[in-house]
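Structure tokens please, single chain.
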Amino acid sequence: MKLYEINEQIINIIDNMALVEDEQLYDIMKNSIEQLELEEGEKIDNVLSYIKNLESETKAIKEEISKLNERAKSKEKKAERLKEFIFDYMRYTNKDKFESVRNVAKIVKTPARVIIDDTKKFIFECEKSGLDHLLEYKEPAPSKTRIAEYLKEGYELDGARLESGTKLRIK
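Here you go.
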């Protein structure tokens, strides 16, 4: 029987108990409610146990993902170090290209990239010279932590409020 069906049966029995005059039938109905409540409790307990199991599996999966990410980063760093080694070796031996049956490696020019030596000075000079179009400005974003503190102190803000909810905590 499904959980909602148990609840429906309990409500039906309670509704009918008011109409029953026979004490023996009344006791049977009362016992039926107790049995249904036990079944209801067992179903809820089973679902809660299943939730705990899912949360545990989720945690284990996340931990495994974290470990795999660490391994991947380690492999990436090792590959980068080996690329640097081969690059340095090829430059040292004045080789621009290496070719074998399985691999090809070439030293090639990269596109030019911008290097800014002193960011603060550069920004100041751009603003002073009217070259603002060379700068990126970020949109301001609300700090929810600071707003919460402000509201908790008793202040009010248009467009912001504190809101509490409810959630199920399983232990």
